[in-house]
User: What shape does this take?
Amino acid sequence: MQKSLISWSILFLISAFSCQKESARNPFGRHETITVAWSKDVNTLDPACAVGMESAEVVAQMYEGLVTTDPVTRQIRPLLAEKWEQSPDGLVWDFTLRRGLRFHDGTPLDADAVVFSFRRQMDAVVAHRARPDDPRIAQCGYDYWKAYFDGLIQSVKVINSHKLRIVLKYPYAPFLNSLEMFAVSIVRPFDTENADTLNQHSLGTGPFKLVSRMADRIVLTRNSNYWDKSKVPAFRYLVFQTIRETRQRLLALEGQRIDFAFHLNPARYLTIQLHPLLQLRAEASNNTVYLALNTKRGPFSVRQIRLAVNHAINRDKIVKMVYQGMADLAQGPLSDQMLIQGKSIFKKDDPLARWHEYDPEKARALLREGGFGLEGEQRQFTLYLIQSPRNYLPDPLLMANMIRHDLEQVGIPVVVKPAEYMEYKRILKLGLHDMAIHGWVGEISDPDEYLYGLLHGSNVTRATGTNHAFFTNDRFDDLVKQGRQAHESVDQRISLYRQALEIFHEEAPWVPLAHSRMVLTASKRLEGIEITPATFLVYRSIRMVEK
Assistant: This one.
């Protein structure tokens, strides 16, 4: 006990010295600044171009959409739009904007700005089809627009200064939910010939605005003129800092030089829970982590071999080792917590909520049945992963090596290929991988985001970069399309999605791995921490207290 007290006393002295040193070089002042550290740089501040949770998290502080989701009831509620009307056939949506809203530079928000925010993406994607070398796609990609809105929206038009109309090509049941995606946040109109505008200027309506951006550090300041006066942040600065080494992020958190540390090793969670200056919270999260099998490449085009891979991998052991109790074993693309307007897709003891069991002998038999190795092919099969840890994947290299070990035990040679995020995205979009560990954090809490965005065949043909298994199945695609269009009946949607999940189970284009919890490690000087359904932190609600 005495030794423990001495150890904590030394820690306090080190922490105090570290805080004084940091305060001396921090021009913003710790008492008015919250600092967040993670492992990877933010790639863009343009909502339409953002990929990766780091960029999305920063963008979500500066930009807002037409609607939002209540974090408790999970119901859609107004944000920049104060009300909306839907035609009986589900095709026409009229939105009325709140009055008196202004962008960060003081420009009034009107219907023209909303139309611009949609049209700049629509026009770029359409132009790219006619001219594949269009520089707008090379600079951005508009991956979210291509995956979820391209082919859905017929037109976006101004009715008057505070009213606009969106016409869909077909009814889309979760349309309101989809408008919460950060990719369709509303921006002040700008010259689209200058693709770097939003990386240099703050043109949103959110509670924070841009002060400066460097490669590894972004500084935001509160928007004192934020339209919802009850939600103006109580502190002045919000800093996002890249600290690549996991150990250095933890030391910075323990030394109170930062307030949040993301992507820490789960093996350190107990230490954090026992630390007198730190807090750890684990929140349920709408996500899925999986091994995508490239169904258009090599032996993984054969169903029996994909099933063999599923039986070969000890998923339960991997989840326990990688997450240290902070994740549930995935039994498919959807968590059993997934609801549609309050109704569950799964039933009690549902066979659809049970995946293929670990069985190496069965895996070997399926490999033989599928003809694996009969042509004498001895090459190693590539397993790509993002080398930096993520909120949903704290130790990607450990997971990859455990998968490699299991597959080699049944005779599938594997080479593990860690890559930086953008290189990883490029490889997967081109289909150069045999397998890839991937994760997805849902923004709209609807099955469509997973079954359509990550698995529908159209997201192969349109090269959106989201269907990493390159999975195409006409019956599956038809069921999912019907499900997204069945806007009048929740029960019909559930029935359609259950049929689609049966096909997914039979075809096995993925090895489902985990539904992870969002783990927050933070200083105890912070209170009022809230999390959105899309697992973004609501920084504007945070208060600083002395501990």
User: Anything to note?
Assistant: Confidence is low (pLDDT under 50) at residues 1-25. The chain is about 35% helix and 20% strand. The longest strand covers residues 153-160. Residues 304 and 387 are 30 Å apart (CA to CA).
